[in-house]
Amino acid sequence: MSHERNGPDLLRQNVGRVKSGVGGCFLGSHVMFRGMDLHSEFAEARWMDLYLFGITGRRFSSAQLRLFEAIWTYTSYPDARIWNNRVAALAGSTRSSGNLGVSAALAVSEAAIYGRGIDIRASDFLIRTRAHVAAGGELGSWVRGELAERRSLAGYGRPLSSRRDERLDPILSFARSLGLADGPHLQLAHEIERFLVESRLRMTANYGAIAAALTADMGLSAREHYLYVHAAFVAGMLPCYIDAEARPAGTFLPLPCGSVAYQGAPKRTWHRA
């Protein structure tokens, strides 16, 4: 019975209609965006204000919006060697459209090791850890347990460099200038780092942990943090696409056939029957 109720019957109830709890466009009249008039109530809003309102249904202060924007700005690297920027550059080199190139680059940004997968895990870890500590739990055993279960700690360590993440000092300095660097999740992120260093686990906080801590202190859940950072790399992708497009086609990272270590079936001659 439950299967039938959630199957064809449910689909029939939605035939010919679009149900929405977030808004609608009334052509020639107005547009509603989560219960607010887009063109009057957001007439002077920043784009980030609207973007976050669409995700969370909440409005943020001017200082918070500036910090949300800075978190994106400080990780916008126009370097075509970076894995997702490379996709955008390859699209430019093959004369694909900018839209397709950046869309593909954003798609691979979902990477579990370097991209959005880490972001949602870092936010979830900090939020869960804060709840654990607030309930009287011990930090060290909790962190060790997380490492034992997941074999990594999202937001800590940086496989490509042993140096301090170059984004941290600028974003923390800016957060302090806005009065937004004293939140409990950010303090916890630093405490976790101190524990890891003192325990000789050789992991320091990277941008993923600090960004997740800052947004958690501004009220974002792990899911909201993931959706917010979705487009954080775009500003660095477009220059890579444009630069590769301006060069001779196919010259971005060409791979000679001789560089492929092929071990399959040998070359065959096909004969017509």
Question: Short summary of the structure?
Answer:
By secondary structure, the protein is mainly alpha-helical. It is 53% helix and 4% strand.
Helix content: 40-55%
Terminus-to-terminus distance: 58 Å
Provide the structure class.
mainly alpha
Mean pLDDT: 92
Low-confidence stretches: none
- For CATH, the homologous superfamily of the domain at 116-229 is named as Cytochrome P450-Terp, domain 2
Order of helices and strands: HHEEEHHHHHHHHHHHH
- Spatial strand arrangement across the major sheet: 1-2-3
CATH class of the domain at 116-229: Mainly Alpha
β-strand number: 3
What is Rg? Answer: 24 Å
What general outline do the C-alpha atoms trace?
globular
Q: How many strands, which pairing sense, and closed or not: the largest β-sheet?
A: 3 strands, antiparallel
Instruction: Assign the CATH architecture of the domain at 116-229.
Output: Orthogonal Bundle
Strand content: under 5%
- The helix count comes to 14
CATH fold description of the domain at 116-229: Cytochrome p450-Terp, domain 2
